[in-house]
Amino acid sequence: MAAGFFQAEMSMLSSTLARSYSIPFRKTLMSFDFRIAMERNPFPRIPRSRVAAFSSSPPHSRNFPIPGLEDVFVGYLFGRKKATEVAHLVWEQIIQKGDVVVDATCGNGNDTLAMLKMVTDDSNGYGGHVYAMDIQKDAIESTSSLLDQTLGSKEKERVKLFNICHSKMEEIVPEKSSVRMVAFNLGYLPGGNKSIITVSDTTLSALKASERVLVPGGLISLVVYIGHPGGREELEVVEAFGSGLPVSDWVCCKLQMLNRPLAPVLVFMFKREK
Ligand SMILES: C[S@@+](CC[C@H](N)C(=O)[O-])C[C@H]1O[C@@H](n2cnc3c(N)ncnc32)[C@H](O)[C@@H]1O
């Protein structure tokens, strides 16, 4: 029964994907070739001008299939990859060398470090900036120490760390900077004080600030943890915010495990290019 249901669901998903990518309906998801689909039209609603930027490599050398896509995304679908790995893969499709990005919850610095690698080109020292913030001083110290262990002093200069609430991000991101991405990893600091968590009110204010600072072609990315008190309410606030963004300007989606009710939920809000 369960297996039958699974197959039926997969087959429906397969048909939907097939329709989006003009691939014959009889192909099942198992035989669905992501590479073919991505080569034909990687993101059907996004202008093709943007497609050139869907890789971490320089625009002139970008092509498909996207390296790592099958490994990470399909790995996530089958329970072998984490939500954060999927988030990082999505970031790589959006962020370009030289970009300005915001880590709204830097915690232990893992996401900050991943972002820095995406905005920096080691070969010629060219790079953008990461504005990283956290409400906890301990988190700022933890991020700083991770960067010290991993980076040279020149690279570290590209990260600006702030011990503030993310609802105030506009006070630290220079007014004229074109912010390509704002990323949130909500919840509490792993290994830290579990009573200091992100809360709906300030998360909502920070989302509104993100909407204001983001350039067209940019991304608001969220990994939402729902296993702690208040987590589910916060997800509802995030979902309501994303649902309210006009479809003419935004593409918003979420990825959520159905039978793991406490698994983190991924939410992506992509601001269309004009
Ligand atoms: C899940 S952790 C982030 C993990 C981090 N991105 C990493 O890679 O290690 C969530 C972080 O959000 C921080 N936080 C909570 N409320 C905040 C707020 N209003 N503004 C900024 N950071 C906040 C917490 O202190 C915690 O460090």
UniProtKB/TrEMBL annotation:
Transmembrane segments: none annotated. Pfam families: rRNA_methylase. InterPro entries: MnmM_MeTrfase, SAM-dependent_MTases_sf. It comes from the Eukaryota. GO terms for molecular function: mRNA binding. Gene3D superfamilies: Vaccinia Virus protein VP39. This is rRNA methylase YtqB. The lineage of its organism: Eukaryota, Viridiplantae, Streptophyta, Embryophyta, Tracheophyta.
